[in-house]
Amino acid sequence: MKKNFTLIFTLLLCLFYIGGNAQTQFWSDTFEDAGAPSSGSRTASIDFSCGGPPFTSYFTRTLPTGIALQNGSYSLFQGSKIWAAEDIDKGPTCTNASISANQQVTWSGINIAGKTGLSFKGLLAASQLGGWQGLNFGAAEDFLIVEYRIDGGAWTKALAFYSNVPAASPASSNQLYLDTDGDLIGDGAGLTYAFTEYSANITGTGTTLDLRFNCFANASAAQELAVDNFRLFEAPPVVAPTVTTTAATGVGAVKATLGGNVTADGGASVTERGIVWATTANPTTANTKVTNGTGTGSFSAVISSLPAATLVHFRAYAINSSGTSYGSDLTFTTNAALSATTSQSNVFCNGGSNGTATVTASGGVTSYSYSWAPSGGTSATATGLTSGSYTVTITDSESTQITRNFTITQPTAISTATGSQTNVSCNGGTNGSASVSPSGGTPGYTYSWSPS
Question: According to the model, what pLDDT value does residue 445 have?
Fold first, then answer.
């Protein structure tokens, strides 16, 4: 029997974990002889058994074999002992109506200081053979309730089971069902002889929690109920997220693709994540920070405005309500900055158009593109230039741009304004002469006299 329960409990625990945030158990009462409850105290309003053996009226911790059920036996309980009740009002003297049919087991002094997200789980069972008194019986209505209070406050129902038939009587064929809407009429899942695990959230926080199993059962026909393996859980403490840093890719002179992976949120939403970088080791959010979304999972982005030709340190980071976590410190070295050398050839003759200008780009990320203005084309060398000013814009594959300026010159216009002559001394003679001293243009000069 215990093996069967262990398998079922394991499956339920897995579902509890998958269905929401993981819970941590901090208290239990298995009703066994040792180690139960795990803390605090368990106090019964009365503890008795009579009739039999096995007992026919009881409100006690017992072996399932120690009590007489009307038709069947309990199953799927944990361990060896349970807390069971039947025909409670007979009391220790086995005299009908000698005590109240409403009795409780209370656990006091359970420490909940600093705990949040509290919840309860327990195994519950009851006869499914009918006879449960319904709402119409007023103060004599049968029920099974698990309730709690924090720091001595009012009792609050966590789970409550009532007859599903308001007018039900000890002769009715009915069951105790979970009351889902608080109207004291069962309308949810029904209890049977097979112990079933039920859970409920516990609202609020404080220092001390009291837990109570409260029931009413006074007929001897088939009003049998039992509980087992009560447990309390808390939300695990929130810790900072877990994040790793991803190696840099696409490294250029001023840009690189950087990222990371938030593998665990630490129990609270990750409200910010991203990259921090600096030129010193182990940068933090006090250095340059580039945000990149929220939540868990991988992320990356192109980071720009990096310093060229520099060793850069970077880390992924993630933030939740507990704090900030960082991945490992990784490094990369950026390329040299985009730059260019220049050369030019000026116009050879005044008024000509044979000037050239050339740039030789380096650094940045290849390939490069060129744009000359006001003319010159889209190559590294502009040709056919006349005298004047020119600008070339160089763009690399990171979209970084630099400009270089040129002034193409030309010689001044040739001039023969300076010259001298000697006239013929005698009519018909041939001793005349003429000379010029050219300037401007491009030396050396050649001369051609005409007519001779």
Answer: 80
Coil, helix or strand for 437? strand
The closest alpha carbon to 70, from 207, 173, 206, 185, belongs to 173
Structure-derived torsion over alpha carbons of residues 327, 328, 333, 334, reported in degrees to the nearest 10: 0
**Structural domain that includes position 215:** 2-234
- Rama region for 20: left / alpha / beta (φ>0; ψ in -120 to 50; rest): beta
User: Do residue 64 and residue 210 come from a single domain?
Assistant: yes
Count Cβ atoms below 10 Å from residue 424 Cβ, excluding itself: 11
Mean pLDDT by 10 residues, the chain (452 residues): 35 38 89 96 97 93 95 95 96 94 98 95 94 90 97 98 82 85 96 98 97 88 90 93 98 97 95 98 98 98 96 98 97 97 96 96 96 97 97 96 97 80 86 80 80 80
Pairing of β 119-126 and β 224-234: antiparallel
Task: Supply 74's token pair.
Answer: 């309990």
CA torsion angle for 70, 75, 77, 83 (degrees, to 10)?
0
CATH for 13: 2.60.120.200
429 located within any domain: no
Parallel, antiparallel or unpaired: strands 48-50 and 57-62: antiparallel
- Measured distance CA(319)–CA(347) in Å, rounded: 65
Output DSSP code: residue 243.
E
Task: Return the closest-CA partner of residue 192 out of 179, 178, 175, 206.
Answer: 175
Instruction: Tell me if 449 is assigned to some domain.
Output: no
